[in-house]
Amino acid sequence: MSRDWTKEELQAASKAMAAAGNMSYEEFCEKLNEMTAKMLIERFAKKQRGGNYPCPCCGFEKMNSDPVRNALSRRANVYVCDECGTVEAMEDYFGKEQSLTDWAVVMNPESFDMA
Ligand SMILES: [Zn+2]
């Protein structure tokens, strides 16, 4: 049996979880979205080896046809274009990270035969 939580109940539970050192509900949802995005990206990585696709991160046709001549992403086990590889390196340097949910392959899976 489950019931719908009211907004107030969710907020209170979320606050209590955060106060107890756990993830808040919002953090949990964010984490879940990231994980789902990462799973999709890594499923795409298997496809990537067998065909010519745009960069899964920026979505542009900038990939070298020889996969290993592209940059290996620091976020997931997948190749991205050189530019995205550089951006990731800079993000790491500045301690920031673009969410995987913003990747082209996650936003437009049908363009990558992933829908
Ligand atoms: Zn790119």
What would you say this structure looks like, in words?
With 115 residues, the protein is mainly alpha-helical. It has one domain (7-112). Helix content is 47%, strand content 3%. Strands 1-2 form a two-stranded antiparallel sheet. Strand 1 and strand 2 (79-80) form a beta hairpin. The longest helix is centred in the first third of the chain and has 24 residues, at 25-48. It is elongated, with a radius of gyration of 18 Å. Bound molecules: zinc ion. Residues 55, 57-58, 60, 62, 80-81, 83-84 line the site of zinc ion. Zinc ion binds at residues 55, 57-58, 60, 62, 80-81, 83-84.
Characteristics of this structure?
single chain, 115 residues, mainly alpha, two-stranded antiparallel sheet, 4 helices, 2 strands, binds zinc ion
The count of helical stretches stands at 4
Number of strands: 2
Biggest sheet: strand arrangement: 1-2
Regarding quaternary structure, what we see is single chain
- Tally of distinct domains: 1
The proportion of residues in beta strands is under 5%
Q: What percent of residues adopt helix (DSSP H or I)?
A: 40-55%
Low-confidence stretches: none
Globally, the shape reads elongated
Largest sheet: 2 strands, antiparallel
SS-derived structural category: mainly alpha
List each distinct ligand once: zinc ion
Q: Give the CA-CA distance, first to last residue.
A: 32 Å
